[in-house]
């Protein structure tokens, strides 16, 4: 069965259009609720959201769908995606739902589903839910007395705050550190500054005034220039930038230099290896991670295991093969000793623990390797798929040949947008740029 709704990270699209309508949310609630009902007891689903305007619409539609098939609904309001992953098993819920389009602008939205173990659903389960949606999920509605109830869990933020603080090493403090935290006007706008303040840092919070429209707008992990300028402006020791649902993080040092997910994974892996905490003798990352990370880990006799793009594929590989550090260059860092999905705040705290113990500037502690020159460009297309064109295919073949063994070329379609991503890296920056430009030019001629 061809996937109609689910992409690489749940369902995502422009709110109130296409697949991201109240009708879709209603069907998802019915179909997912039916799938996860497995007995005569009362079933429970947890629903969280970020701060975009359309979350109200989707939350109500999902609630109607779930209650209509006999599931009780617990809503927690704006909360980070990893908080939903943590709270789902904690509350003995049969299913967790996060309403968010992550790093996308406010006019997009999405639905992410977590199983009772707190892990994102597999492709197979998502396909089964889609099958139910296609067949008409309204065929097995609950009888009147079995319709579900809905209520709000008011202390959910406090539960998550305490959970995050407990994973920070006992005995360490953040006093003496001035930290800028950019919350992207998103789901962590309250909990993230609170965690840092309770761990005794001096906190400068930005991107903490959501209005329904400004999530990820010129702030957060996808606009790190804002973080860099704020760190320099406030003479801070470092900066932390989350995205709209706080499952990814980028940081910057005291000079405003950005520290991406590859550098964070390198630091955490090296630290945990020295502490004999690293499992699997390696790190799981995606095909997008820089060759510099691979070479650095090799010098530590650690392997870099690559998966397809998508943090849930990283999580699945880690779970299957026993790794406890993984993630994406974009800042999804998964530390499954603590959490089942990417958690920007927990990854930042593990980095801060290394900084505190080292007693040196962030610029010295967090810069572990020089990344290979890497260029990424996106090509948007309409009805015509550029990868099917012979001219484009030849340009890709020529690019691979030019890069040879000293570089790497990656072409992939976005799982959430009509985009083709063209990425190349290698020792020769000029060659990398030329290869990407030639392929993009060929694609743009087809996509017009």
Q: End-to-end distance, in Å?
A: 31 Å
Biggest sheet, spatial arrangement of strands: 1-2-6-5-3-4-7
How would you describe the shape?
globular
CATH architecture of the largest domain: 3-Layer(aba) Sandwich
Q: Quick check: average pLDDT?
A: 94
Relative helix content: 25-40%
Beta-strand portion reads 15-25%
Q: Helical stretch count?
A: 14
Please count the beta strands (DSSP E, at least 2 residues each): 19
Highest-level CATH class of the largest domain: Alpha Beta
- Quaternary status of these chains? single chain
Q: Major sheet, described briefly?
A: 7 strands, mixed
Q: Which topology of the largest domain does CATH recognise?
A: Alpha-D-Glucose-1,6-Bisphosphate, Chain A, domain 3
Keywords, please?
globular, single chain, alpha/beta, Alpha-D-Glucose-1,6-Bisphosphate, Chain A, domain 3, 448 residues, 37% helix, 19 strands, 5-stranded mixed sheet, 7-stranded mixed sheet, 21% strand
Model description:
With about 450 residues, the chain is α/β, with parallel strands linked by helices. The protein folds into four domains: about 5-155, 3-Layer(aba) Sandwich (Alpha-D-Glucose-1,6-Bisphosphate, Chain A, domain 3), CATH 3.40.120; about 180-255, Alpha-D-Glucose-1,6-Bisphosphate, Chain A, domain 3; about 260-370, Alpha-D-Glucose-1,6-Bisphosphate, subunit A, domain 3 (Alpha-D-Glucose-1,6-Bisphosphate, Chain A, domain 3, 3-Layer(aba) Sandwich); about 375-445, Alpha-D-phosphohexomutase, C-terminal domain (TATA-Binding Protein). The chain contains 14 helices and 19 strands. The protein has a seven-stranded mixed sheet with strand order 1-2-6-5-3-4-7, with helices on both faces. β11 (about 250) and β12 (about 260) form a beta hairpin. α1 (about 20-35) runs parallel beside α2 (about 55-70), α5 (about 155-165) crosses α6 (about 190-200) and α13 runs antiparallel to α14. The chain is globular, with a radius of gyration of 22 Å. The mean pLDDT is about 95.
């Amino acid at each position: 069965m061809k996937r109609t709704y689910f992409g690489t990270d749940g369902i995502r699209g422009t709110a109130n259009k296409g697949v991201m309508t109240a009708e879709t949310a209603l069907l998802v609630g019915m179909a997912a609720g039916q799938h996860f009902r497995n007995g005569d007891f009362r079933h429970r689903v947890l629903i969280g959201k970020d701060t975009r305007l359309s979350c109200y619409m989707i939350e109500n539609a999902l609630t109607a769908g779930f209650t209509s098939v006999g599931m009780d609904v617990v809503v927690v309001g704006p909360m980070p995606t990893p908080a939903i992953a943590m709270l789902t098993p904690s509350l003995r819920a049969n299913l967790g739902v996060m309403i968010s389009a992550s790093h996308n602008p406010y006019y997009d939205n999405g639905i992410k589903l977590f199983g009772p173990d707190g892990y994102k659903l597999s492709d197979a389960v998502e396909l089964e839910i889609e099958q139910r949606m296609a067949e008409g999920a309204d065929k097995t509605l609950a009888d009147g007395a079995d319709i579900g109830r809905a209520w709000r869990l008011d202390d959910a933020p406090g539960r998550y705050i305490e959970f995050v603080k407990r994973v920070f090493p006992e005995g360490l403090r953040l006093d003496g550190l001035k930290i800028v935290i950019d919350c992207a006007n998103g789901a962590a706008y309250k909990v993230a500054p609170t965690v840092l303040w309770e761990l005794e840092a001096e906190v400068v919070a930005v991107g903490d005034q959501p209005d329904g429209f400004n999530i990820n707008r010129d702030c957060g992990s996808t606009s790190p220039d804002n973080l860099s300028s704020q760190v320099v402006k406030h003479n801070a020791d470092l900066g932390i930038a989350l995205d709209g649902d706080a499952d990814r993080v980028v940081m910057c040092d005291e000079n405003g230099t950005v520290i991406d997910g590859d550098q964070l994974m390198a630091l955490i892996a090296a630290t945990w290896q020295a502490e004999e905490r690293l499992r699997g003798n390696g790190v799981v990352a995606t095909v997008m991670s820089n060759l510099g990370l691979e070479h650095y880990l090799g010098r530590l006799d650690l392997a870099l295991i690559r998966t397809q793009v998508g943090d849930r594929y990283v999580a699945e590989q880690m779970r299957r093969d026993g790794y406890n550090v993984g993630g994406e260059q974009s800042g999804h860092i998964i530390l499954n000793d603590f959490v089942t999905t990417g958690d920007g705040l927990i990854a930042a705290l593990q980095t801060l623990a290394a900084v505190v113990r080292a007693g040196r500037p962030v610029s010295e502690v967090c810069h572990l390797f020089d990344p290979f020159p890497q260029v990424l460009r996106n090509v948007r297309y309409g009805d015509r798929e550029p990868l099917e064109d012979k001219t484009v295919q030849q340009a890709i073949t020529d690019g691979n040949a030019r890069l040879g063994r000293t570089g790497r070329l990656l072409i992939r379609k976005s799982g959430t947008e009509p985009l083709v991503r063209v990425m190349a890296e290698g020792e020769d920056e000029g060659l990398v740029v030329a290869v990407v430009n030639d392929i993009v030019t060929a694609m743009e001629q087809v996509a017009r």
